[in-house]
Each structure stands twice: as structure tokens, then as C-alpha cells.
Amino acid sequence: MKLILVAAVALTPLLAKDPEPAQRLNEAAAVFSEVMAAPDKGIPQDLLEDAKCIVIVPGMKKAAFVVGGEYGRGFVTCRTAASWGAPAAIRIEGGSVGFQIGASATDLIMLVMNDRGMNKLLGDKFTLGADASLAAGPVGRTANAKTDAKMTAEILAWSRAKGLFAGVSLSGATLRPDRDENAELYGEKIGSKEVLTGSMKMPEAARPLVAALSKYPPSSKMNADRVKQ
Predict the structure, then answer these.
(1) I want to staple 191 with a disulfide (CB 3.0 to 4.6 A). Which of 69, 177, 201, 215 is the partner?
(2) CA angle, corner 17, sides to 11 and 21, nearest 5?
(3) Is residue 227 in some structural domain?
(4) Is residue 98 classed as helix, strand or coil in its secondary structure?
(5) What range does the domain containing 148 cover?
(6) What is the pLDDT of residues 117-152, one digit of tens each?
């Protein structure tokens, strides 16, 4: 119990500084655009073109004093027939035990590569690495290792901290809908499923993020798969 209280105390000052959803959407758009604009350091474009959904968590917090804790709020959006759909707010949470002192903020991006991974997003909660297979994503303009075992993962993850962008392992972290944020964006406390599979009107604040993502249309293979369906 004492360890849990210590973790909560470590995270409390960070949680109090959470921005409003509209500001966080702008931050998510900025994170994605900056990562993709970095020469030879972005997410491989062919992987992005094949992705079903993308999760962006700007400024994921990590604070620790004996017990480490991670907490982030961000958004997930999935491809539609035309472009990208309205984003659903999500929370990502995790913890680790260790003698860590300090705090940091890390931008996090995850690509959901197939229908199995996408279906996990529609539920109430799932654990990365346990309920959905997870791998650190490769960095560069193209992914030459698509036949590698990690390319079979349902979710690929990257992080950016202090200017360094690299693949990251997040096994053990949990991801769930952020109904409070969705209420501010859509007027009701709904989960990810209602947003990602429904016909929710695109919030004005989400348009910069969707515009940034729309610069990377789906691959011809994905379009062919849609026609078959």
C-alpha cells in the first residue's frame, strides 16, 4: 500500500498539469508532423500506409521515487474509406518497480497493423504485450525488415524524448478509453468503439491532426483489401 501511495504522489503534480483536449489534439498533430519531417528518422512510410489505426500520446508522463509510474492521455484514429475517422480519446497507464528518481515526458506513437489489433481498441481495456502483440517499431523512411518476426506484431511502438526518436517496448502498459475526454469532444461519455465505428462528427479541434495524417494515404494493398470486403 505504501508503494502505491508513493507512486500516486509522484504522479500527482504531473496529472494536475494536463491540458484541455483541444490543446492535446494540437500537440498530437505537432508530434506526428515533427516526427515524419525528421530526415531519415521518422516512421517508415510503408508501415504507416499499411496501418489500420494510429495512437498518439503527446507528453506521456513518467515519474518515480522507488516506484515508477507511467501515465498518458492521447488519441486513436482509424482509417475510413475516405481518410481518417474522428479520434477517440484514450488513456495509457503502467507501472514498474525500481529505484528510479526523477520525472520525464515522452511522446508516444503506436501503429495498429491489423484487424486483431484494431478490435482490441474497441474494448474497455487491454494490456500491451499480453492482450495484443507488441514490438518496437523500426526507424527510417522504409521498413526493409518486413519479414522479420517483429513485423508480425499487431502493434508497433515508437517514442521520442529529448529529440531522440526510436522504437520502444511498452509491454505491461494498459490502454483504455478516456470517456471524460470524449465527453468534452462529443458531448457524452462514450468509449472508443462508439467513436471509431460510429459516425461521430469530426470535432473542429481534430482537423489539424487528421490533415497531418491524411498526407499519408493507404497503400494500394489496403485499398484492394477494402474492395474485397
Answers:
(1) 177
(2) 115
(3) no
(4) strand
(5) 2-222
(6) 999 999 888 888 888 888 888 888 776 655 454 567
Q: Which of 48-52, 128-132, 191-195 has the lowest mean pLDDT?
A: 128-132
Rounded CA separation 50/219 (Å): 6
Q: Cell digits for 16?
A: 494536475
3-state secondary structure of 156: strand
Using alpha carbons, list the distances in angstroms from residue 51 to 136, 142, 157, 210, 222: 15, 14, 12, 15, 9
- The answer to whether 166 and 159 have CB atoms below 8 angstroms apart is yes
Name which of 131, 86, 90, 124 is nearest 109 in CA terms. Answer: 90
Q: What is the pTM of this model?
A: 0.82
Kindly write down the DSSP assignment for every residue of 37-96, as one continuous string. Answer: HSTTTS--HHHHHH-SEEEEEEEEEEEEEEEEEEEEEEEEEEB-SSSB-PPEEEEEEEEE
Could you give the percent of the chain with pLDDT greater than 90? 45
Residue 142 in domain: yes
Could you tell me if residue 228 is inside a domain? no
Return the DSSP state at 133. Answer: -
- Asked whether residue 229 is assigned to any structural domain, the reply reads no
**Domain total in the chain:** 1
Q: In residues, how long is the chain?
A: 229
Cα–Cα distance between 7 and 179 in angstroms, integer?
A: 24
Within the chain, residue ranges assigned H as helices are 2-15, 21-37, 45-50, 115-121, 179-186, 192-196, 207-213, 220-228
